[in-house]
User: Fold this.
Amino acid sequence: MSRKPIIAGNWKMFKTVSEAASFFADVKGKAEVDGVESVICAPFTALPSLVEAAKGTTIAIGAQNLHFEDNGAFTGEISGVMLKDLGVKYVIIGHSERRAYFAETDEIVSKKVHAAFKNDLTPIVCVGEKLEEREAGETKNVCSVQTVAAFQGLSASQAAEVVVAYEPIWAIGTGKSSTSEDAQDVIGYIRSVIAGLYDDATAAAVRIQYGGSVKPNNVAEYMGQQDIDGALVGGASLEPASYIALIEGAK
Ligand code: 13P
Assistant:
């Protein structure tokens, strides 16, 4: 089963509309490489112009969150219906920053995954352990619980479409990346959890990224591991040259 590598930039709360436009103009044509899927997950405000700019390119645009209801009295929230209407393709769900700062639980993550599928958005579901969980030997257990919750109620064909991002929290924005061997060990385990929920063929179709201090100079090392299908990248996705180098490095 060959899985297409997928590099996704998670801009987090960075870039105005004009900064996003300037970034896109710089990466257009260059962050488009045969055999690698290139995704930019931007703040909501930059999505309409990025979707427009990305037309006719192979770069996909993603959001970083959605509400699980289609509409309603949820001040400040954005729904899957709205993202689909814009032409957004991907949505990050359950990022550790949302779990930590916005009280997102596994149950909310599951609802959001269903909302994504209902609106033809591909979820990039984040799982990963805190430092104290790693030190307590709980890494696989934590990832298993989060993975099982995220896939709850999905059909096998939906499950095969999910992108999982394994992001050890202690490696995010710290410059302390997981070794590629450790990342492979956990990601291989996550794949076995998915196989247990469905079957080997479904698990073999799911793309699983590593995230946490991925840079142009270490992306190839992760991509060399058999179960690692790409990266979810924060800081190093913000500069055009660095983003292009990440895509090139994932070939
Ligand atoms: P950094 O690449 O900045 O460590 O961030 C990782 C991340 O959280 C991507 O979602």
About this structure: The chain has a mean pLDDT of 97. The pocket of 1,3-dihydroxyacetonephosphate is lined by residues 10, 95, 167, 172-173, 211-214, 232-236 (CB under 6 Å).
